[in-house]
Amino acid sequence: MATLPRLCRLPNTPPLSYLQHCRTNISLTHRSLRSISTSTAVPEPEPENEAERYISPQVDPKFRYGDVIVINDGKGDRRIIGPLKEGIFRDSNTGRLKHDDIVGMSPLSTIKTHKGAKFTLHWPTLDEYCTKVKRQASIMYPKDATSAVHLLDLFPGAHVLEAGTGNGSMTLYIQRAIQGPGSHLDTVDIRNEHSQQAEENVGRFWRGMYRPGIIFWRSVGGLQKVIKHLRGLETATDNTSESESGAEFDRDGRPLTKLEIKRKKLTEAKEVLPPNPHPVGHQYDAISLDLPDCKSVLLDLMPLLKPDRPMCLYMVNMSQVLELVQWMRKHDDKHSYIVERVLDVDWQEWSVRSAAVRSKVKGRVHVGGFGHVSLLRQAQPSDGETENQESNFTTAADNIPDDAVGWICRPLHMPTGHTGFLVQLRKNSE
């Protein structure tokens, strides 16, 4: 090792010790400066719990980063954008809309794109949020979800079990009906990606207003495994058995194929169930099922439902309803359910609007377009426009004279149509 010049060395200090001495002094100096800078900084107070971090839109309705909102172009086109993020923008044929410009604005505020297109800002309703938000599964439409909540006879503080989370639309409707002191919702799905997307959707609606009190069970092992876990039974018990030769069989004694064995091992490797939050013998006030084969779990769910409480099943076609009723008749001695109602919910929207009667207009307005009736007025020229431009023409949508107003009331040409059947069961035993 080369020795340092004598002027840089301490008296009677070897070169190696000198380097260690310098390194120690530099470290001490760095720590001292860091402690000084840390002591002069005033730490920001952190909220004590999650409730203090959450700010309800009802308390502070101004839009913030992370909010999901609706923009309305004034022509009936309402679109969801968000979550709002710093530096992100939305491009369309009407121009660019920056998220940074939306933050801090209030509902019903008007914002313009760089092309001059105007949009009003709104908080989304639950109906439009569930139908327009990002999803990976088929949704339950508002007409079915609201009717299912009615059939489940929900109330604030209820405990509900939902099987078939999907995109979380029914989860939101149930939670809105039961949210209150002591309420709880367990929702189960066998597809991890669907359950994760649903949890994300629930957390983004109105800043996660309905997120507390929900447990998302991602059980790739099926609903039966969650039922055993909720009942306090052995979750390690499997429906398959293994013989001495190593072959595996299902509950009916049929040997499993290689693909089924591979799928079973993959399921066992990924299966993670959170601790059961309920005491032994806990029962739910209502159960909602949206499964391809609901009748396969009815017997397992019976101990989890309180006596004289309802269960609502969502079925796509009448064949499934008929199979369910036939199965219940065949196994009448094993269950204690009765079918109370089978509903096919259909909403028929109507169009109620004004129109100009051509024979009474007599050239006073330009006939065309639809909308609300208002007093006759001339459109004022905007900035950069002259009196001769087209913006000064009145239309039947806004300027129909009172003596020339006609009203049209008729159903829309595109009805909602059939989406599914709702079957209400009731447990009629202890």
Automatic annotation (TrEMBL):
Entry's Gene Ontology cellular component terms: mitochondrion; tRNA (m1A) methyltransferase complex
State one Pfam family annotation: GCD14
Give the E.C. number(s).
2.1.1.220
Taxonomically, which superkingdom?
Eukaryota
The record places domain tRNA (adenine(58)-N(1))-methyltransferase catalytic subunit TRM61 C-terminal at: 129-201
Enumerate the Gene Ontology biological process terms.
Answer: tRNA methylation
Q: Which Gene3D superfamilies match?
A: Vaccinia Virus protein VP39
* The entry's keywords: Methyltransferase, S-adenosyl-L-methionine, Transferase, tRNA processing
Output the InterPro entries linked to this UniProt entry. Answer: SAM-dependent_MTases_sf, TRM61_C, tRNA_MeTrfase_Gcd14
GO terms (molecular function) for this protein are: tRNA (adenine(58)-N1)-methyltransferase activity
Protein name stated in the entry: tRNA (adenine(58)-N(1))-methyltransferase catalytic subunit TRM61
Q: Which organism is it from?
A: Entomortierella chlamydospora
